[in-house]
Specification:
alpha+beta, 2 domains, disordered N terminus
Length: 336
């Protein structure tokens, strides 16, 4: 546990400095509207959320009766001040258990939302937080991006349903892609637009800005919702209108698959392997296509990709007499 290891604590604190992304209520509402049926009679845990400022807590507490929830639990890592980015970090984390409106005013009042101290620091991996995890049916939160793999691994270990935010970089991690391939996890509907970030966050690109109220914002073009709650879109077929033509669909130099530059170009009559952009995962229907693998590096080697012109096991394709490696691809195969 992090509280028992000083080195681990320092490393986590350093990573967390660039990991503080606070989700907008509008982004939560846009995604959560597709999952209403999943929450009836369920206990929801938001285990990376200070209820005093978390929009996840705001959403679920104000929609508690509408969603017919059983219980809402929130926990957060050690923080003592009721603001977004406290620099004061005492030893204890915080938690709250909300079980609906008790006084008839149809909103979560102070007497119904008493915040309590945890025994430890509130790390989602700690024993007491795992105990709360076991109480919950569905986990909904925005976990630290730097701990995404470890966070997802814990959810899978305990067999939890979840709807969480991450960036798309882990799509090419073996653990994460395997879950996608085996239909144990998939992408949600929407893409979070922007996150509130603390003052210490480096405004290092055009994707960072400060509004007229002095609030810092960061737009992450690669942020996505990940879930294992069944949704309608993953059962919708991708409409295919192109026919296979070997002149229009060249094969890779070092792997027996054809190159697809755009998802709309996937041929309807080709039964072999195809390399498609990562954006295909937004359209993936496991009844229509099979995810085969990632044709780069060690993953490519496992697939049977041979060395390219640069001596690497990355797919390459020759155009205009020159061999090039296309941008990130996923290998798929159409099902009968």
């Amino acid at each position: 546990m992090r509280g028992k290891s000083l080195n681990r604590s320092l490393h986590a604190a350093k990573a967390a400095k660039e990991d503080e992304f606070y989700t907008q209520l509008t982004d939560i509402e846009k995604e959560l509207k597709h999952y209403t049926a999943h929450f009836k009679g369920k206990s929801v845990l938001c285990n990376c959320d200070d209820p005093r400022i978390s929009n996840f807590f705001h959403y679920f507490s104000h929609n508690f009766e509408k969603l017919k929830l059983k219980k809402l639990i929130t926990t957060c890592y050690q923080s003592n001040d009721a603001d977004l980015f406290s620099t004061h970090t005492p030893e204890k984390g915080k938690y709250l258990v909300y079980e609906g409106d008790k006084d008839g005013d149809r909103k979560p009042g102070p007497d119904e939302t008493a915040i309590r101290d945890l025994k430890g620091d509130g790390d989602f991996r700690s024993a007491e937080c795992v105990e709360l995890l076991n109480e919950a049916d569905i986990i909904v939160t925005n976990p630290p991006f730097s701990l995404f793999r470890e966070y997802v691994a814990q959810l899978m270990e305990y067999g939890k349903k979840f709807l969480i935010i991450g960036n798309t970089n882990p799509l090419h991690y073996q653990e994460i892609f395997t879950l996608l391939k085996e239909n144990e996890m998939w992408l949600g509907y929407t893409q979070p637009v922007a996150f509130v970030v603390p003052d210490h966050y480096e405004m290092r690109s055009v994707r960072s800005w400060r509004d007229e109220n002095g609030t810092n914002w960061r737009s992450l073009g690669n942020a996505r919702w990940f879930t294992n709650l069944d949704i309608a879109k993953r059962h919708e077929d991708l409409i295919l209108v192109k026919n296979y033509d070997p002149e229009k669909y060249p094969k890779y130099d070092n792997f027996d698959a054809i190159e697809i530059n755009r998802n709309t170009d996937i041929p309807c009559d080709f039964d072999g392997l195809m390399g498609v952009p990562d954006t295909f995962l937004d359209k993936h229907n496991p009844d229509q296509f099979e995810l085969i693998g990632i044709p780069f590096g060690n993953f490519g080697k496992a697939l049977g990709v041979t060395k390219n012109h640069r001596g690497r096991t990355d797919i390459a394709i020759t155009r205009d007499g020159k061999s090039r490696c296309p941008y990130s691809r996923i290998i798929i195969k159409r099902k009968s």
